[in-house]
Amino acid sequence: MCDDLPPQDDAVSAIDGAVAALRREPRPLVLAVSGGLDSMVLLDSAARLLPDRIAAVATFDHRTGRAARAASRLVVRQARARGLQVEAAVSRRPGRSEAEWRRARWHFLHDVARRVGGTVVTAHTQDDQVETVLLRALRHAGPRGLAALHAPGAIRRPLLAVRREQIARYALARGVAWVDDPSNASLAFRRNRVRHELLPALRRVHPDIDRELLALSARAAIWRRDVEAVARAISACPAPEVVHVAIDSLRGYDRAGLAMLWPAVAARAGLALDRRGTERLVGFTMAGVAGGRIQLAGGWQVAQVRDRFVLRRASPSTVEEAELPLTGVLRWGRWSFFRRQGPAIAGDDDVWEARLPAAPGRMTVRGWMPGDRMRGADGRPRRVKRFLRDAGIAGVDRAGWPVVVADGEIVWIPGVRRSDAATARSGRPAVSFSCEFDDWGAAGR
Fold it and tell me: d(Cα 8, Cα 2) in Å, to the nearest integer?
């Protein structure tokens, strides 16, 4: 508990000054508080200085044992005692690695921030930055990764210039309570081995190692900001998880230049490219095959479409069922549905249009599911999957393809086939609809 450290007013002043700067943040604050020393100091300072700016104190129990439960309960008690809103959650299942814990925690924090319209604030310190830079250097990370916690982003880290020693002095001076999780000392975890063994050894033989790692990350952060500015200038994001890059904007870049640019471009769509993915994408770019397409990890694809490269998720995110409107436009994933005005559809050739029965029941759009069937022209039901396959829809593109349901029966697979119930016939009360498909960003049929 660092009882041998005397109270130091300069540590309190330094931390309060750093936390007070959060008053300039335009959005409400979501404090990420684990119950450990660093985050409890953040909570103490922010609750004194900025109580009106705190939308929630968020704490997450990873289910790693008794200490994790105690830490979460401490956060809840302390936050409520200060009159602050608390958002607490427990992991659905205990993770087995640092990466699993991190993913679960950040999913929770981002969800809280989204619900309250706030900005996540963490208690990462200068020591955390040093450890992170060294860890990434050991993995041969490039400048983008070596920026580490200084990388531009939506997370606020007010204590990045504060040393862990100052955190301990603040806690002693202010009487801050915290819970020490035994897992923080376990050498089973890579960060702990760096913290407790590698860094102390490096400091003994090279006392300036911390300063040099921090200077390296500062230079990398400047480099990353510059590269991301170029990425924003040469790319566009017409929809979530989609990014376009004009082919002409990449001319003149060699392999090394493309390897720097593509990770920054991909990040705009939400994709974190690894080394292997970057190499594949660079090779694809330099090959310049019109109409070419490659798969990347995580369900992503890149295609060369006319004058641009288009990166997007190969399998669209799940879209909820929606009612087909009689007025206006329904945007459903990468498809747009709207009622067709004017003369009736002339024939059956255009499968992007359909005359749907004007019945009192609801007409809805949803993603097709295994086992779905639709009646063909002969009146016999066939699997929707077969219709998609016969229409030449690639397997990777079938996921999430829409079907239109009227009175519980599938009557239209846009761009593929209509059932007999959705075929133009004189004398039948019907409503005409059209569908447009954003194929790699181009509205087209």
Answer: 13
3-state SS assignment for residue 146: helix
Least confident of 32-36, 354-358, 372-376: 354-358
Q: Average pLDDT for residues 32-52, to the nearest whole number?
A: 97
Residue 420's CB is within 10 A of a number of other CB atoms, namely 13
| Domain range annotation of the chain | 9-217, 240-313, 322-444
DSSP state of 197: I
Name the helix (H) or strand (E) containing 132.
helix 126-138
Residue 198, token pair as written in the block: 């590698």
Mean pLDDT across 105-118: 93
Residue range 240-313 forms a domain whose CATH class is: alpha beta
Q: CA distances (Å), 117 to each of 29, 45, 114, 248, in order?
A: 9, 22, 5, 39
pLDDT at 423 (0 to 100) = 56
Asked if the model's pLDDT at residue 214 lies above 90, the reply is: yes
CATH fold label, 9-217: Rossmann fold (3.40.50)
Tell me what pLDDT residue 442 has: 45
**Radius of gyration of the chain from its Cα atoms, rounded to whole angstroms:** 28
Give the Å distances, CA to CA, from 231 to 179, 201, 250, 325. Answer: 43, 40, 10, 38
- Helix or strand run (H / E) with residue 330: strand 329-332
Q: How far apart are CA 385 and CA 160, in angstroms?
A: 53
Q: Are 60 and 89 in contact (CB under 8 A)?
A: yes
Residues 355, 344 contacting (CB under 8 angstroms): yes
pLDDT averaged over every residue in the chain: 87
pLDDT tens for 268-301 read 998 989 889 999 999 999 998 888 888 888 778 8
**90: its two tokens:** 């427990």
365 membership: H or E segment, kind and range: strand 363-367
The sign of the CA dihedral 78, 84, 85, 91 is negative
